[in-house]
Write a structure and sequence with these properties.
This is BTB domain-containing protein. The chain is mainly alpha-helical and 151 residues long. It is built from 8 helices and 3 strands; from the N terminus they run ααββααβαααα.
Length: 151
């Protein structure tokens, strides 16, 4: 079916990991971490999340070297939809449903979870936005609010 040197083999493996994540089937997904966002549970794999987040990498490292071992991490600084987009990015390197209205939320997530890759994706998106004078001031005010709040 596939040869190991074949790019289609890597694509196939990538799709299988993504399908496992999207299924959220705990019995067959072998998830080793869960996130609780506003009562909604999102299951994932630590190695995938840690690969793009210094914050989670450090948290998982501390968990493995101490008696503290939370299998469910509360997330209270963003919505389920936004955090799911971040985790989905970890699995795919892509994001969906990005809008000018959501970009500041995504930047906040990149900042809080110390994700250079996610931050770069936000930068690319921002570089393609065409602003009008009015939309620029609205965006600038929203950004200023985020900075004052400390993201």
């Amino acid at each position: 079916m596939f040869s190991i040197s074949d790019d289609s083999f890597l694509v196939h493996l990538h799709k299988k990991r993504l399908q496992t994540f999207l299924s959220q089937d705990c019995e067959n997904g072998f998830f080793d971490i869960s996130f609780d966002i506003d009562g909604n549970i999102l299951h994932a794999h630590k190695f995938v999340i840690a690969s793009i987040s210094e914050t989670f990498k450090e948290l998982f490292r501390k968990q493995s070297s101490s008696s503290f071992n939370a299998d469910q991490i509360p997330i209270d600084n963003c919505s389920f939809k936004d955090f799911r987009a971040f985790v989905l990015f970890a699995y795919t390197g892509e994001w969906t449903l990005m809008t000018n209205e959501r970009i500041l939320k995504m930047l906040q997530i990149a900042f809080v979870y110390q994700s250079e890759e996610f931050h770069q994706k936000c930068d690319i998106y921002l570089s393609k936005i065409t602003f009008t004078v009015e939309s620029f001031y609205h965006f600038y005010d929203s950004l200023a609010d985020c900075i004052i709040i400390g993201f």
